[in-house]
Design brief:
Helix content of chain A is 65%, strand content 0%. Chain A has 550 residues and is mainly alpha-helical. Chain B folds into two domains: 92 residues, no CATH class; 157 residues, Immunoglobulin-like, CATH 2.60.40. In chain B, α1 packs antiparallel against α2 and α2 packs antiparallel against α3. Classes of the chains: A mainly alpha (550), B alpha/beta (298).
């Protein structure tokens, strides 16, 4: 426990000559956690626009009940790429890689991550993996079997696309594992002397929980996909019933990763919201300890709920019962977090700026998605709506209405830290209003579609659903339009935004106790000891003044 | 005189519960219910819809109230109250969701049991344990279902079976393939692209998939079951309302997945027998029924 890999005092001479300076840093193999964090962020946003364009193609196809916008095979390629890009190249790298890398070293009082070179390797696996995945569309055929790649379908669709899909997901999974190990090591081993685990900002706990899930479950996905590739390339029969294999075993293994993946996407968002709300409500985070235990409970429960994705796959009754109960139980720690956030707002002095609006939008959307989630956990309920648009609506409420809203809120919150300038609030609010209305218009009606008989992943549907699908597509169009004020804001404000100063929000967490943007190795002097990161409303805060050298 | 906060909170909660109940009772989001287990499903749906509405309105109401009531006034640079927690309150909002979730779990288990989801596979084996149930199933299975290998009884996977699949059930062998369902009636030898069933009588589907995973879904029956290659699957239901309802493949099965649809025609017993008679193939299959008094259609 005495091992400290990075001394908290400044090293005398940063190895400047080896690293490119200025904007070129962002295209280099930089080992600075802040550079890597922004690399993840910008790279993630590029893939987000790719995934968004794919979503736009899906919603365009669904404007009419007939398959008339693109060939059916292309439609399946598009929906597979949309799911894969959004999960593996946008949400997972951004909430973990981008914000995790940027913030965690500040929060633990370190000058960088535990393994800076590994960190850079983890990032630089992502662009080639993403380009590989997208290239499969242009060199024949992308995968057509959905992001779930269930065999035997994935064994019968064009093999090139499927193998490339497996390869790129393996690369992205490896990147994710490397990142997870790095976060665990940093949070447990690089804490500034004197800083206790229960004094860390909540985002550290969220990322610790997430990284545990990443390290435990991603290797299972990797192993599964390797077996799947054997089935495709070498015609083995692990998952091929025609050769004596079992297709359901794949589903178990796949969901053993892919359900925790939902928490890998959502827990960091919980952490980020826990940082944003206290700052803009000027109140301490309510119920710190219960928040920590909730995260740990979600981690444990999140590992034992995977078969609720398989209630119609012929799972035995006892298994259905077990997974119903385990899944429903997750509502309890999740509920605690939401009540704690509401209590954080209660009695505060709330500034309804862009960061806060997106955080509150997240609370609304996630509660909505959480309620449908508890319903979906019930076997008899799920049997009707499984694999329908109800499920599509549910998980978009969780991952878009939940996590993506938090990503936007976080970008507005930390924009002054990244750039030293404030983002434009008018454009930010416009962005929020368009996104919130567009998102709900797009996905709320899909619950009804699913209940009334529209399955997911179809290019054609019963004409009675035309109008509601068109409403949904209009919502998608609004979401697409909403990215314009965002992009304009981000680019314009980076050059001409109002100067922010070091700490425009008067926040107490350690990343604000240095210059904006921060220097290499984070602090000019010794790292401050912040033991009350949410000490709003308390008498003078000694920790904010910068602490003595240990 | 100001109303005490506790009474106000309690009053608001009661109002929310009533709004939730009203919405659950009066807002219908589901298609018509045309099978024996559909009304049971709808009962569960109503309860979940009511609870969900109350919770959502309560939480969103609290959120919006806070945002308005505690908005920061221009020029105010002070902090809010330094409240870091409240143990009784935190115990309260851990316990209440736990109780609600527990209630939902037990209730949905009851619903599932009423749908027949937890029941053994058929009426003959009600007393039997799982192993013998499987064997009983294998014995009573249609010839096509007895598995290619023939080595031992095939494992049969079951979905919901509201009325079991007793001897009086209409037996239909279902083959799911890219991109169609084929219905074979072993008793009459009919092979059809549409599923015809008599109203009010149990139907037992013996399903198998030829190529990839498909799923058999009839929204009006609130029934869905995956059909997985290598896993013969039993699904039974009793249709209760005459009409034509869509059968939809709900598992991505290839490019024409969206077009993999069929129809289940629920008709009165007379029309059903007439349909069977009309469509039975000329040479009667096997010697299932020794005499067929009905003349063949010209």
């Amino acid at each position: 426990m005495t091992l400290t890999l990075s001394p908290p005092t400044a090293t005398p001479e940063p190895q400047a000559p080896l690293q490119p300076q200025g904007w070129l840093r962002y295209f280099s193999f930089s080992v600075d956690h802040k550079v890597i964090g922004l690399q993840y962020l910008v790279c993630g946003f590029l893939f987000y626009f790719v995934g968004g364009a794919l979503a736009g193609m899906i919603r365009t196809e669904l404007l009419t009940p007939l398959s008339d916008f693109m060939p059916r095979e292309t439609y399946n390629e598009v929906l597979t790429l949309h799911g894969t890009v959004m999960i593996f190249l946008w949400i997972v790298p951004v909430v973990n890689g981008a914000f995790g890398n940027y913030l965690i070293p500040f929060y633990v009082g370190a000058r960088d991550m535990a393994f800076p070179r590994l960190n850079a390797v983890a990032f630089w696996l992502i662009p080639p993996a993403g380009l590989l995945l997208i290239s499969s569309y242009f060199i024949g055929s992308a995968s057509q079997s959905g992001w779930t790649a269930y065999p035997p379908l994935s064994l019968t669709t064009p093999a090139t696309g499927q193998v490339i899909w497996i390869l790129s997901v393996l690369l992205l999974g490896s990147s994710s594992i490397l990142g997870g190990i790095n976060f665990i090591a940093t949070i447990l081993k690089l804490r500034r002397p004197g800083l206790k685990m229960l004094q860390l900002p909540m985002f550290c706990w969220a990322l610790l929980g997430t990284s545990i899930l990443v390290v435990l479950s991603t290797p299972v996905l990797a192993g599964t996909l390797v077996l799947l590739s054997f089935d495709i390339i070498a015609h083995t029969g692990f998952f091929n019933p025609a050769l004596g294999g079992n297709a359901v075993v794949y589903q178990h293994l796949f969901w053993f990763y892919s359900h925790p993946a939902v928490y890998i996407m959502v827990l960091p968002a919980f952490g980020l919201v826990s940082e944003i709300l206290p700052v803009h409500a000027r109140k301490p985070l309510f119920g710190y300890i219960t928040m920590v235990y909730s995260i740990l409970a979600i981690v444990v429960l999140g590992l034992v709920v995977w078969a609720h994705h398989m209630f119609t796959s012929g799972t035995p009754p006892w298994m259905r019962l077990f997974f119903t109960i385990a899944t429903s139980l997750i509502a309890v720690p999740t509920g605690i977090k939401f009540f704690n956030w509401l209590a954080t707002l209660w009695g505060g002095k709330i500034a309804l700026n862009s960061a806060m609006l997106f955080s509150c939008g997240f609370i609304f959307n996630f509660v909505f998605g959480g309620i449908t989630g508890v319903a979906l956990a019930q076997v008899p309920f799920d049997i009707h709506v499984h694999d329908t648009y109800f499920v599509v609506a549910h998980f978009h409420y969780i991952v878009y209405g939940g996590t993506v809203f938090v990503i936007f809120g976080s970008v507005y919150h930390w924009y002054p830290k990244f750039t030293g300038r404030l983002a434009n609030e008018t454009l930010g609010r416009l962005h929020f209003v368009l996104t919130f209305i567009g998102f709900n218009l797009c996905f709320a009606p899909q619950h009804w579609l699913g209940l009334n008989g529209m399955p997911r992943r179809v290019a054609e549907y019963d004409p009675q659903f035309t109008f509601v699908n068109q409403v949904s597509s209009v919502g998608a169009l609004l979401m697409a339009i909403s990215t314009l004020p965002f992009l304009i804001n981000m680019i314009y404000s980076a050059f001409a935004g109002e100067k922010a100063g070091d700490n425009p929000w008067r926040a107490l967490t350690p990343e604000w106790l240095t210059s904006s943007p921060p220097p290499v190795e984070n602090w000019k002097g010794p790292a401050p000891l912040v033991t009350h990161p949410y000490g709003y409303g308390e008498a003078p805060q000694p920790q904010a003044v910068g602490a003595s050298s240990p | 005189m100001p109303i005490p906060a506790a009474i106000l909170t309690f009053g608001l909660s009661v109002v929310l519960v009533f709004i939730g109940l009203w919405v659950g009772q009066n807002v219908n989001l589901l298609p018509i219910d045309a099978s024996a287990n559909a009304p049971v499903y709808d009962e569960l749906f109503q309860v979940l819809f009511s609870i969900g509405t109350s919770l959502l309105l309560g939480i969103v109401g609290l959120l919006i109230y806070s945002l308005v009531r505690y908005r920061r006034l221009a020029g105010d640079t002070g902090d809010g109250l330094a409240i870091e927690g409240n143990l009784p309150l935190e115990i309260f909002w851990t316990a209440v969701p736990a109780i609600v979730v527990l209630f939902i779990g037990i209730y949905s288990y009851d619903i599932y049991e009423r749908m027949g989801g937890m029941a053994p596979l058929n009426d003959h084996s009600v007393h039997a344990m799982h192993n013998s149930a499987d064997q009983a199933m294998a014995a009573s299975m249609a010839p096509g279902m007895a598995m290619e290998a023939g080595a031992g009884p095939a494992r049969v996977w079951a979905g919901i079976s509201p009325t079991g699949s007793g001897a009086d059930a209409v037996k239909v062998d279902v083959t799911a393939m890219q991109f169609a369902f084929i219905f074979r009636y072993p008793e009459s030898g009919i092979i059809s692209g549409e599923l015809h069933v008599p109203v009010g009588q149990a139907v037992a589907l013996n399903m198998e998939a030829k190529d990839v995973i498909h799923a058999f879904w009839v929204p009006q029956f609130r029934l869905k079951q995956d059909v997985i290659p290598g896993q013969p699957t039993l699904l039974s239901f009793t249709a209760t309302k005459e009409g034509r309802y869509p059968i939809i493949c709900a598992e991505l099965c290839g490019p024409y997945h969206g077009g993999m649809r069929s129809t289940v025609v629920v008709e009165d017993p007379e029309s059903y027998s007439a349909w069977v008679t009309k469509n039975s193939p000329a040479p009667l299959p096997v010697s299932a029924s020794p005499v067929n008094p009905v003349p063949l259609q010209s």
